[in-house]
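Researcher: Please translate sequence to structure tokens.
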Amino acid sequence: MSRDFPSGTWAVILGGSSGFGLATASVLADHGVNLCVVHRDRRAALRQVEPEFEKIRGAGVELRTWNVDATDPDKRTGILDEMRELLGSDGRVRVLLHSIAFGNLKLLAPEKTEPRTAGAALAAALGVDPAELERAADELFAQGEDGLHPLTRAPEYPSRSYLDEDDFARTILSMGTSLLGWTQGLFQRELFADDARVFGLTSEGNEVAWRGYAAVSAAKVSLETLARSIAVEFGPHGIRCNVIQAGVTETPALAAIPGSAHLKAQARLRNPLHRLTTPRDVANVIHLLSLDEAGWINGEVIRVDGGEHISGVTR
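Model: Translation complete:
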């Protein structure tokens, strides 16, 4: 274990049982940071989560977990009070990471699409059955031939119901503005270190419209706006706040997005480094931004994507 932080340093991770949250917990533990992890998992999923938590404990740090809804104000109050007892007089929170991935992925309106013609035209030129060509494209695409994505069966989106205002409100709270209550709660209890770092997570969906992603996009933009305000208003108290914009990453949250296989394929074709972002890529940057040397970075959206966002080239 490489200790980059003083003893008694803690991180609070909201949504820390998978994806970015779990990877960040692991990286920070490797550098001597104790952890408070809030997550929400069903009993069946805990069988996979607990071994990961044991690995973190194996790094020689303290780890306390709560399997509750981090957006519930009463639960939050109870956890924060427990944290105050847990940290005692010497412990302080250096890092607060908001990694809650609970959003509504329904469409706004019924999908109306033009029929795909490339597959049928290619099948006609080759003198083969269009259905057989699509089947072969689907099979090879599943095996990693990303360039075939225009010839595959089109992604299907749920059409039983559509986003409404309540869906937006719940998603924006969960994936965006719930960061505020945790930041204020830690601050009011004087649990933040003198030089603390608050992080949120966003995606390219903050600028690009993906089908079924409208509520999550709204949450990401709300989070970014809130993060800038935290950076300005809590900055005088020694708290920096930044947002990480990860590239397309293989996580449970991505898998829940309709058409995620096509998003991944397009990202790999576009990325200059020809691979997806990993949770560990993001966790490593959060660690770097938590060091003393990064203390002058505040109020920024920082892309961690290997150049995916700026690339206009596909292979």
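Researcher: Any highlights?
Model: Residues 165-188 form the longest helix (24 residues).
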